[in-house]
Amino acid sequence: MTHSSHRRLIGALVGLGVTCTSITPAMAQISPPPPAQSDAQTEEIVVTAQRSGIPVWRVTGQRGTVVLVGTIRDVAAGTRWDPLPLEAALARADVVMFPDTTGFSLGLFSAIGALGKWRKQATLPKGQTLQALMSADQFARLVALRNRGVLKAGFERKHPYHLALTLRGVAAGKAGFGPDAGRYVRRTVKKKKLRMVPMAQGNSKAVMAEFFGSTARSHVPCLLEMVTTVETPGAIKARSDAWASRRVPDVMASVAERAHRKCWPTGSGFDAQRDAALGGTVRALLGRPQTTVAVISLDALAARGGVLDDLVSAGFDVRGPKWKL
Fold first, then answer.
1. What are the start-end ranges of the E strands in 61-157?
2. Which distant-in-sequence residues (6+ apart) come within 8 Å of 316 by Cβ?
3. pLDDT for 130-156, tens place per residue?
4. DSSP character for 95?
């Protein structure tokens, strides 16, 4: 197993939003929990979090308050946002909810097996090519990227998902990606010694079986959206800048965001399980006498029928940046 193959598998799990850590929502809580905070303290948390320059919403219930922080993956390096206010807000909350925390583990032998399958999957089976999996016009777009030197000769034998990961790096440019909000959440949890309690336990074998059991053709839409991202100069940087300036509709409409929605794990069983649980989880938190800072992917929050729409439909007061056009 080459180091490159290992990095590509890791990229499949943590890049593009492709992360096994998004299977199970989890909560970090100081033990024992501190007393519920006053409205003034809650407002201070909101204002402090907003100073980081990323989307933040305050939702009030009969007993509790939830501060929703919308995050994205693949933040372009050099994106200007200040993580310190976010860390401070997390530290002052009664409870921190961070769904992108794993509730399962992958054993050594399972990991080795997954790496082997990943490497084998990278090339299409003998006799198969990408040309047979897409229309002539779609394949011509890949040929054009090869002619520009973006793709190497022989690209047509690559698995579409693996090729999409290659194009993700191309779209990011030489600067690559910078740290996202999740990194600072994990750092704050560790620094403040918050206890992470998974809300559900994921099945790593089922996750791997679902991915490796998928057909190559099912990943073609992901590849095509990544082609569009490469064809749109600065798409990843523009999406990152929109996120850092709380322009949520611009993030949701960006071609780079569309690529995330088309690429695994979106639509997978564990992704659906995670998102289906979020609305109910947040509503339950609003019934507790505490202030919760919930750090959730912007897509899960702001998508049509997502958590924010769910809360508004349920009659809760949601205050923060506009999330729909």
1. 65-71, 95-97
2. 59, 60, 61, 283, 286
3. 999 999 999 999 999 999 999 999 999
4. E
